[in-house]
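Researcher: We're teaching a course module on how sequence relates to structure. For the next exercise, students receive a sequence and then see the predicted structure as tokens, so they can try to spot secondary structure elements on their own. Here is the exercise chain.
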Amino acid sequence: MTKTLLASVAIFAISGFSAIAAEKEFPAKLVSHAILPANTIIPAPTDAPEHLKTSAKFTTADRKRAEGLGTVPGMDGVRPTGLSMPFNGQAMQGFSGIKAMEDGTFWSLSDNGFGSKINSSDSMLMLHHLSFDWDAGKVNALETAFLTDPDKKAPFPIVMEGSDKRYLTGADFDVESIQPVADGFWIGEEFGPYILKFTRDGKLTDVIATKAGEIDVKSPDHPTLTLPGNPTQKMPAFNLKRSGGYEGMAMSKDGSKLYGMLEGPLYTADGQLEKTEDGATGLRIIELDVASKSWTGRTWLYPLAEGGEAIGDFNMLDETTALVIERDNGAGTADKACADPKKPETNCFAVPSKVKRIYKIEFNDANVGKAARKIGYIDLLNISDPDNKKRQGGGEGFYDMPFVTIENVDRVDATHIIVGNDNNLPFSAGRALDKADDNEFVLIEVKDLLDAK
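Model: And here is the predicted structure for the students to work with:
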């Protein structure tokens, strides 16, 4: 596997396609703004085990069980976010992937729960059917589908292994991207990383391990990896950072292919990142044939911009172009930055946002094995708001999204896209210094970007 990965990096390095051209910024105008309050808690299903009736019981610093509701304060670094755990119910948060439907509604999903495999065993995995009342600024949950594994398709013991319904939790999978289809949903996840298939009512039917060409892709959370029996033995091999799996997953317009995009780059055995020929860090786009549920062997690289550290969502516009959210790991605004990021304080943002963008890209048969072409982008930190449509954030004449994770984008029509954040409840406070971020969704006019070639 190591030799194959090294060879693939070499192929990318000598390919004749230039990924980093002069990047063009396009205008963006805020049209509507809807907010789901951060502290939106819903009950677990009535047939769920008692363990799942409350959530976030294992978010203490020492990972010991929190015995009382609301006894563990949410923190963003050294800053309290104003919400405390555990919760009496399940948090409807962490929206991480969105897909516009023909009837004007949307499907989205909550990710693994509270940020890691080890602290999310009581966080239920769920998909959300949403509508937006843009005039009132409201997010309406039409339906929530809780994910289950009644037929024991997961190739490892799940948290609810011995229960009747076998609800899935954030210690089993980290679901991050969604593609609704006629018979259910395709889901991209990060722990394996795996591509998952679910029925319309949320039953797991398929778990597909990842191969990028001949490379078996594994994160440190892959269920087959175990520590050696003593410290002198060799550690298990993996080639992807934790939380580096399928943050984005797009589907071809004819429904025949899925394109999983890794959030982070693959690593070689000597710790080197995959790069494009121009030296940009490259994230793999990996093609899956839907009918056979097998990898085609075709891959591309998405080139990160200077300052970009990860992607947040990925949806096709047509057969060869797509929208991608690219971001850094900053949160908050530069005007409230701490004087010394190494000495964070409660009254400032340690590392403010700099790169929060939506790119239009092109990848096709001609550049298989090479870098996708970046056509241009909009800046989510400076969205024009001449009609004062924002409900919070921004400033005079503009709206911004200074969130650490922005993980929802899709085209709504010929001129508009929808964008939303993952608020990482209750740990992220990028909108305000002392308040957990809400789930914000915006409708943005971006005709020039969508028309760009």
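Model: If you want an answer key for the exercise: Helices lie at 2-14, 447-451. Residues 1-20 have pLDDT under 50 and may be disordered.
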